[in-house]
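Quick start: what a row looks like.
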Amino acid sequence: MIPTIEKLAQKANAKIAIGVSNEDRMQERTISGALHVFKRGFAQPILVGSNIHEVPELQIINTSSPEETLLDLLISKKVQGAVRGSFKAHAIMKALKNKLKDFTESNYIRIALIQNSLTDNMIYLSPVGIEEGRDINSKKLIVSKGVELLKLIGSTPKIDVLAAGLFPDDLGRDSLADGTINDAIEIVRQFKETKEFDITTSGITFEKAIEEGANLIVSPNGIAGNLLYRTLVHVADWKSFGSVLAFQDLNFTDFVYIDTSSIGTVHEYRRALTFASALSSPK
């Protein structure tokens, strides 16, 4: 766990709704994660599902439309944050699309928080949704919102914008790679002019970005980011805190929603709940 996030979560001890699957194995994992953060005082989890068994310590909402209910609780401010938990992706994405059109006009991107198991260094990684990060404007939004996230937890931004090749060595080899290289160079140029934070591009050398201590890594597109995330979390055993939704026209405290895997571990769910509570904490 990241100490700053734990401190902010304990300060807030916020009401956080979390989605709970009907599948026995995943229900047990989600509930175990919720009980952990409740007992540590990191959050007050509210379990939302359609067939959750009794858990005396926690509030439970069983409903015929659990995904919509989870989001309704968040939008109506009855909870300070929400975590997808073990809900299936297609169901929660459909509910998000329906609910958000009345809440905000802007599109969202997901920014994942992961922690190196060997060094305990944390990084934000985005885009990680396969449909995200296809143009330069969405990647510029990632930089802007990523900087906000880093400052929320008291970190000094150090940003690396990746590409599908190196400049100038790989220019001309592939048109798709060229586009990502040019995007990275332009993003770095624009943000460097502000002189507000450290930003560079390591091209395709992700390992260099890690070695040099980047704490916000912008992948060339969502497919590449998704592959990086899966490799680090599911193969290299990095710790996942889930992915926070970031909107151009909203502050993070206005809509705290953490996306998680429907087949996540107990540890992912407890970290995501703690992260959500930390983001809701008054700074």
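That is the whole record. The first strand starts at residue 14 and ends at 19. The chain has a mean pLDDT of 92.
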